[in-house]
Amino acid sequence: MFQKHALLSFFLILGMSCISQQFMNLSFEKNDRDSKMPKKWFIVEENNCSFNVNNKHKVDGSLSMGLSPIKKENDCSSLLLNELNSEIYLNKYFICISAFITYKNERDAENISIECKQLTDQGNPIVTDSCYSSVEKKNGGWWQLKIKCKIDSLTRHLAFGIKLKITDSIWIDKFSIAVDNTPVLDLKEIARKNPTTAEINWLHKNLIPLDGSIKRYTKYSFLKERIKNEKIIALGEVTHGSSEIYQTKKDLVEFLIKQMNFSILAMEIDIYDAQILNSYIVDDIGNSRTALSQLGYWPWKTEEFKKLIEWMNQYNKISLNKIRICGFDISFSRNSYSILQDFGNLHDKNLVSYLNSLVSVYDKSTNRETYLADTLMTAADLLVEYFESKYSNYAKLVGVQKADSLRRVVKDIWQYSMYDLRKTVQDIIRDRYMADNLSAIITEFISKKIIVWAHNTHISKSDSSMGYLTNRRYPFFSLGFSLGSGDFTAISDGAGMTIKPCLMQSAIVDSYESYFNYAKPNKWYLDLKNTKTVNNWLSLSHLFRFTGVKYSRYQFSNTNLLADFDAIIFIKKSTPSHLIFKP
C-alpha cells in the first residue's frame, strides 16, 4: 500500500511547488514540446520507480496520458499531480473531479484512485472528512473515477491528481472538474512568459550591486535616504540554513545599529532563548558558545549567528545605546517549563501543580492527534487564570520586571497550547500569536527603532501572515531575500531526520529566481516600491522559492513580490550554514 504519510507530504509539498498554474491540460490533448509530461502536470515517483509516457489509448480526442513502469518486477507507487488556481474555488462550496482509467493488469485497478487535498496559504494540509469517492465501469474497458469534496474556507491551494501503485501500463483520460456544478474547462494559457529583453535590461538598470570590496556595513549606505523615516525594518530569509543570508543579515544589522540608531533585534525565537542571549549580549555573562548551546532551536546554533552575537556583545561594551534581543515566537519547551517550575518551587507550589496538570495532558498521549481538546484548553486556561490571580503577589516578591517576564512565559505556554489544538490552521494561528507578541514588543519599546528577524513567510505582507497583521497597526519596511541555487542546512527527508546540507532546487521557469538569474552581480538589492519604471513581468504573480527547517524537493510557491515586500536582496549561490554543535 502507498504510505499515507508519504501521500500527505507530497500534497504538502505541492502547496509549495512548481505547478500552481492558471492553465491546465485536463484532456491531455496538448503536448509540451520541452517535456515528456503533458503541460502543467507533474509526476512524483516513489520506490525508485520511473515511467515512460505514451498516448496510445484514448476515450476520445487524439491523446491520453499513458504511464508504463520501466521496471515491472516491482509495484511502482506514484502521484500524477496538478493544482487548481485559487480564483476558481475561493468562496465556493464543493468541487467534483472525474477521470477515466484503463489498464493492462486488472490487479492494478484496486490501487488507482483520484485524490483531492486542500492546503492553507503556507502549505499546511487541511484535515477534512468531507470527501466522497466512487468508481463506475464504462465501455471499452474504461473505468470512471470520481471524488466530491467540500471546499474549506481556509483553502488556498487545492491539489488534485491520481494516486497509483501499478505493475504495468495504465492510461488516464478526460479529467473533468466542476466547482459548484459549474465545469472548469481547459483554461487558455495566460501570458506568464519569460521576461523580455527590455524587462531584463530594466532589472540591470534598477538593481544595486552588493558584491565587491566595499566595507560590509557601509555598502548599505544607499538605504539611509530610503529608510530614514522607518522605525521598524524586517529582514527575511528564504531558508533558516543559508550561510550567505546570515552573513548578509549580520552586515545589515551592524549597519542599522551603527548608522541608523536601531537598538532592538526582535527575532523568531521564544522568550526564554532571548533571555539566554541577552545574558551574554547585554550582561556579558558567559560566552557566545555557552549561550548558543542552551538555545532550543538549531538554526541559531551556527558560526554565522555566533559572530553576530559576539559583535553585539562587544558593541554593548562601548556604547551607551545598549542593544538587546527580544523573542516573539511561541513554544512550550523544557526551558519554559523550567522557568515556571523553578519559580513555583521557590515561591508558590500551587503554580507548579497547575503547570504539571497541563504537562500531564501531553504526557497521557503519545499521539498528538488524540489530545482531548477540552482537557488541554481547560488546563491551559487554568494556568493563566491562576497566575493572573497571583500576579500582584509575585510582583511584590520578585519585582514588576521579573513578574512581567514570568507572565510572558505563561502567555507563551498558553499560546502554544492553543496552537497545538488547531492542527488544520497551525500556520495561521502561529502567525497571529507571533504578531501579537511582536506588537507587544513594539509597544514596550515604542521609543526605540526595531529590527525584525524572521522567515520570508512571516515578514511578508500577504493575508494572514505575521507581517500583514503587524503592518496594519505598525507599518514597517519589509526586506525579503531570494536565492538562485546552491545548498542549505535543513532537516533531511531521509531516515533519521538528520540536520545536514541539502541541495537547493534549480530555479524553474516562471519563477522570480529564473528572472533574477539574468542579472550579472552575485548579490544585489532591488527596491520594489520606488522604482522609476513599472516592470510588467515583475508586477505579476510568479513562483518564489520557499524552504522551511525541513527539506523538500519542491521549493516554490505562487506569490506576488510587489505585494509582499518593499525590497528584495538576491544572492546567486548559497552554501549551508555551519552548525557549531553536532545535531
CATH class of the largest domain: Alpha Beta
Tell me the total number of β-strands.
Answer: 22
Helix content: 25-40%
The gross shape turns out to be: globular
Write the layout of secondary structure elements.
Layout: H1 4-14, E1 42-45, E2 51-54, E3 65-69, E4 76-84, H2 86-89, E5 94-103, E6 112-119, E7 131-137, E8 143-150, E9 157-166, E10 170-179, E11 182-184, H3 197-206, E12 208-209, H4 223-226, E13 232-235, H5 243-260, E14 264-267, H6 271-281, H7 288-293, H8 303-318, E15 324-327, H9 334-347, H10 349-363, H11 373-398, H12 400-421, H13 426-444, E16 450-453, H14 456-459, H15 466-473, E17 477-491, E18 499-503, H16 512-516, E19 523-527, H17 536-539, E20 542-545, E21 556-559, H18 561-564, E22 567-574
Parallel strand pairs: 13-16, 13-17, 14-15, 14-16, 17-22
Antiparallel strand pairs: 1-4, 2-3, 3-10, 4-9, 5-8, 5-10, 6-9, 7-8, 10-11, 12-19, 17-18, 19-22, 20-21
Helix pairs in contact: 5-8, 9-10, 10-11, 11-12, 12-13, 13-15
Can you characterise this structure?
This protein is an alpha+beta fold and 583 residues long. The chain has three domains: 4-184, Jelly Rolls (Sandwich); 197-213 and 234-323 and 449-574, 3-Layer(aba) Sandwich (EreA/ChaN-like  fold), CATH 3.40.1660; 334-407, no CATH class. It has 18 helices and 22 strands. The protein has helices spanning 4-14, 86-89, 197-206, 223-226, 243-260, 271-281, 288-293, 303-318, 334-347, 349-363, 373-398, 400-421, 426-444, 456-459, 466-473, 512-516, 536-539, 561-564; strands at 42-45, 51-54, 65-69, 76-84, 94-103, 112-119, 131-137, 143-150, 157-166, 170-179, 182-184, 208-209, 232-235, 264-267, 324-327, 450-453, 477-491, 499-503, 523-527, 542-545, 556-559, 567-574. The strands form four sheets. Strands 12, 13, 14, 15, 16, 17, 18, 19 and 22 form a nine-stranded mixed β-sheet that branches. A hairpin with a 5-residue loop joins β7 (131-137) and β8. α5 runs parallel beside α8 (303-318) and α12 runs antiparallel to α13. The longest helix has 26 residues, at 373-398. The relative contact order is 0.13.
